[in-house]
Amino acid sequence: MFERFTEAARNVVEGAAVHAERADADSVTEEHLLLALLDLGGTRSAVAFDALGVTVRRPSVESALAEARRRGGLTRADTEALAGMGIDVAEIVSRVEAAHGTGALASGRAPKRRWSGHRPFTRPAKHTLEQSLRIALARGDRHIGDEHLLLALAARPGVVADVLADHGATYVALERAVSGPHAGGAKAG
Fold first, then answer.
1. Which of 74, 131, 136, 167 is in Cβ range 3.0-4.6 Å of 78 for a Cys bridge?
2. pLDDT tens string 2-60
């Protein structure tokens, strides 16, 4: 499948691995894919982020991702479902952090050092890559570009899609932005 990736899409995958390494995470997650997409310039995803105002709000995106990590990766839907059962996630997080320290519920820390430095992709991150292929094919594109990775992140339910939507980057808005007249010529095909 990677032979179908454009240079920008390959840069996202490589950049995600770098973000995972910097965070000392044991694997590459959807969050790392989003951060790598935010690093790009001059690509279709970068144009979409600019058009939707996400680029200038990157600190807010990073803060929202950190807060979700602090909640143990629970999505907004998870938190609301638990609240409906009378479970206050904020209270649980506070109690756990009081006993075990700030960020105790955050996942992704490497339990041991890897000699090779290789970090595998999580199942959801792999599914995002697979979804990007399906999106590219559905759009009639022969190659998988960074825009397909971005659309796949927005299409898959979870924390990353929640954070994107909270910043005005829903799947529909992103699809319009990557297909619009200012999307640029980064489309391979």
1. 74
2. 789 999 999 999 999 999 999 988 899 999 999 999 999 999 999 999 999 999 999 99
Structure tokens at 97: 């952090």
Q: Does residue 120 contact residue 128 with C-beta atoms inside 8 Å?
A: no
Q: What is the DSSP letter of 107?
A: -
Name every residue whose Cβ is closer than 8 Å to that of residue 109 and which is 6 or more positions away in sequence.
Answer: 24, 25, 26
Write the DSSP symbol of residue 120: P
- C-alpha distance from residue 70 to each of 63, 97, 103, 139 (Å): 10, 9, 5, 36
Q: Which CATH architecture has domain 2-71+109-179?
A: Orthogonal Bundle (1.10)
Alpha carbons within 13 angstroms on the beta-carbon side of residue 50 total 13
Extract the tokens encoding 41. 């310039």
